[in-house]
Amino acid sequence: MSIQQSDVLYTAVATAENGRDGRVATDDGVLDVVVNPPKAMGGSGAGTNPEQLFAAGYSACFQGALAVVARQEKADVSGSEVTAEVGIGKNDDGFGIIVKISATIPNVDPATAKELLEKAHQVCPYSKATRGNITVELAV
């Protein structure tokens, strides 16, 4: 199900110059970073890269989804951490990404933590946007 323009609550705007070997900045100036390919891909690794930025956004978004699900389930996720590992590699039609979402949730048992992660994966906007397009592994 898609949202309509009238339902948009916020729009982020970022502009890239020179792709993977340049800079990216948001229209409000809050983010302005040099981007370079990582050394593993032949770059200098001197700046951040799109995969790191995607991992940062996905982990933050997923943590928010986890909090929403936890409130609904009356579970305590205080002190939890969500880590997103984003890999890039060649696939049949160029390049693709793969993601591993790991969470540490100290106040619930492992089975509950796994259930919360699976539910968060259903409501997280990043998960919804990538569903069916990339492999996402969930780990507690």
UniProtKB/TrEMBL annotation:
InterPro entries per the UniProt record, alphabetical: KH_dom-like_a/b, OHR, OsmC/Ohr_fam, OsmC/Ohrsf
Pfam families hit by this protein: OsmC
GO biological process: one example: response to oxidative stress
Family recorded in the similarity comment: Belongs to the OsmC/Ohr family.
Protein name: Organic hydroperoxide resistance protein
Annotated organism of origin: Streptomyces kanasensis
Superkingdom assignment: Bacteria
Gene3D superfamilies, per database record: 2.20.25.10, 3.30.300.20
NCBIfam families assigned: organ_hyd_perox
